[in-house]
Specification:
By secondary structure, this protein is α/β, with parallel strands linked by helices. Helices cover about 35% and strands about 15% of the residues. Helix 1 (about 10-25) packs across helix 10 (about 265-280) and helix 6 crosses helix 8 (about 220-230).
């Protein structure tokens, strides 16, 4: 646990930042990997992986794996998310970088290389798969009949549609040659052990990064229904393949019981770490849930109602308190009139903007929302913070919250009032972190 050096009443923003850091620290790979590493095999150990925490997870394995045992492999992470290498730590696992959230040629090349490394494995070999959020975009290998450009277009459409992460990853699995359990199938007859950091509501390993080493319970029919629901077009040949079931993924069976999957860090653990820090400062701490979903602005409104009630001494939350939540909300990009400036921002920022509007400058309430990977969507901030005077400062700066919300421009709003939260990549990813301080 981080030391509490700032009292919440003297500097609420610094206190909320400390809670966020406590959540991030709890999820760092080096703190969570040792207990889940298998024994070295008779043969080779090949490390494969993908995700925003991929570089840090690879370094954790390198630090913990016996120096006299062979170790090699390839992991792909997001551009700029490879952590600095500790002095004296030899590199045995190659780490490459690619684009997120929309895949690129570098991610395609990495996926092809990772699949190629599964060739020639024997029953004496071990494949250690390291997976974390972001792996769906980073590990892209289109199904036959799809091009990279097709995958990029479909991915952008899904991101803008408001679809939930489970829906998006259902589609991704069925349009891939590597996701939805296909990578594990390619590793046979080698033993496969998966270590994963969860960034999805419910911690379902088959959803995290579209489950490359986990069997899939969804179907081609499910994927087709999602595409139709959000009016996303696919090539005619792919639509026909989905209808016929030709793109079906490996399904659960007894053979998968021999391929263990370990959750080494979860959103709930990080929320609990933040709650413990809040309690050490003398506050009541309440964790709503680690799996909240829905439109970011609407989730912000609900949180605002809870905070306003607590500030007035009503409801179940007794002040002074911290109200915490996690999960993965969504942002539906709204069409704009020609000439309207394009909005910027991710789901944490839009949550904060919806929260600020609904709080109505409520006295005694401060808040932070930030993605635990340090990047909110595709911007350079992790999220934003809200204070009782946020709307007043915005008005003084000539910025209207309602207009920014209409344009999905949370970044522009919080930049104008100097309330962006900028951390840089954290080298982990357990989804959104939200905390409201009520004094």
């Amino acid at each position: 646990m981080l030391p509490m050096t700032t009292h919440p009443a003297s500097d609420p923003n610094a206190f909320l930042a400390a809670l966020y850091q406590a959540a991030v620290q709890r999820a760092l790979p080096l703190h969570n990997t040792a207990a889940y590493l298998p024994k070295p095999p008779k043969g080779r150990t090949v490390v494969l992986g993908a995700g925003k925490a991929g570089g840090a997870m690879a370094q954790a394995v390198e630090a913990l794996w016996p120096a006299d045992q062979p170790l090699s492999g390839l992991v792909v992470t997001r551009y700029g998310h490879t952590p600095p290498r500790p002095a004296g730590l030899a590199q045995r696992i190659e780490v490459v970088e690619a684009s997120h959230p929309v895949p690129d040629a570098a991610g395609l090349a990495a996926a092809e290389r990772i699949l190629a490394l599964t060739q020639g494995l024997t029953a004496d070999d071990l494949v250690l798969f390291l997976i974390s959020g972001g792996g769906s975009a980073l590990l892209t290998l289109p199904a036959d009949g799809l091009t990279l450009a097709d995958k990029q277009r479909i991915n952008r459409a899904l991101l803008n549609s408001g679809a939930g992460i489970g829906e998006m990853n259902c589609v991704r699995k069925h349009l891939s040659r590597i996701k939805g359990g296909r990578l594990a199938a390619a590793c046979a007859p080698a033993q496969v052990v998966t270590l994963t950091i969860s960034d999805v509501p419910g911690d379902d390993p088959s959803v995290i990064a579209s489950g490359p080493t986990v069997p899939d319970r969804t179907s081609c029919a499910d994927a087709l229904a999602i595409l139709q629901r959000y009016k996303i077009d696919v090539p005619a040949a792919i639509e026909a393949a989905l209808k016929s079931g030709a793109l079906e993924t490996p399904k659960p069976s007894a053979q998968w019981d021999k391929q263990p999957v370990h959750l080494i860090a979860t959103p709930q653990q990080s929320l609990d770490a933040a709650a413990a820090l809040a309690r050490s400062a003398g506050l009541n701490a309440y964790v709503l849930s680690d799996e909240l979903e829905g439109e970011s602005r609407e989730v912000g409104k609900v949180h605002a109602a809870l905070a306003r009630a607590a500030a007035r001494g009503l409801g179940p939350f007794q002040k002074p308190c911290v109200i915490l939540s996690g999960g993965e909300t969504t942002v539906t990009i709204r069409p704009q009139a020609p000439g309207t400036p394009k909005g910027r921002g991710g789901r944490a920022g839009e949550f904060c903007l919806g929260l600020a509007v609904a709080l109505q400058a409520q006295a005694g309430v401060w808040a932070i929302a930030a993605d635990t990977d340090g990047i909110d969507g595709i911007e350079d901030n992790a999220g934003a913070r809200v204070a009782p005077d946020t709307l007043a400062r915005a008005e003084a700066a000539g910025v209207k919250a309602a207009d920014c919300l209409d344009r999905n421009d949370a970044y522009g709003f919080f930049a104008a009032v100097s309330d962006l939260v900028v951390t840089g990549p954290t080298h982990t990813n357990v989804n959104d972190f939200r905390a409201m301080l009520v004094l």
